[in-house]
Amino acid sequence: MPHQLGERRSWTLERRGEFAITSAVGAAVCAGVALVQYRWPCRSYEQYIVLNVALLLWVPLLAIMLTTRAQPSEYGLARGDERLSRVYGWGLFAAVLPVLVVGAHLPSSRAYYPLYRQFPRPGPATWHYLIYFEAVYGLYLFSWEWFFRGYLLFGLSRSIGGMALFPQAVLFGLLHYGKPWPEFASSFVTGLVLGFTAMRVGSFFPGFVVHWAAATAYDLLVLAGVGFRLPP
Length: 232
Hints:
Elements (H helix, E strand, L loop, with lengths): L1 H38 L5 H23 L14 H22 L3 H6 L14 H34 L4 H10 L6 H21 L3 H20 L8
């Protein structure tokens, strides 16, 4: 019995330590992303991507390797349940597509999107540049989903279970500040839905695919509303 109590106490202390480290790393990464996003304007799209990937992808991976005995797969960097992944992936995209169609006609969306308009670029917009932009943005969204629906969600859930859905969704929503109001408001719910999906599947990959597909589709829907003319 004393041996079991000792093991239990050791497990509890380990989980508390993981919670503290995950919370601290999460807060530091979010602060860094906010600074890049709101205080330190990047000179190029590529600089923005590199800084965000470093913060969102590599910092959490290093934190796992240096401060825990866990594997990245325990934080959602895994294939998960492939059948559920397909079900949730297609289901979520089908559910969000009508919302994207309606949102693409809002004046606030047409003034903000396609998203490449928010970044410096070397010359006029072309279709080749749009393809490049969307492809590179996929790397950014992979890092984004890994951080929120991988590292933060699974890292915190090791200590607080399903309650981990809420802090990652709140931080995810707050970092959408500056986007058109409907998108900012809905991002908190989106964070919960994508987080729930990740926990059910055991992976953040479905959320990444849906997020990337939705972002690309939204840009194209906005362009469709103006006759596929690329705005400057």
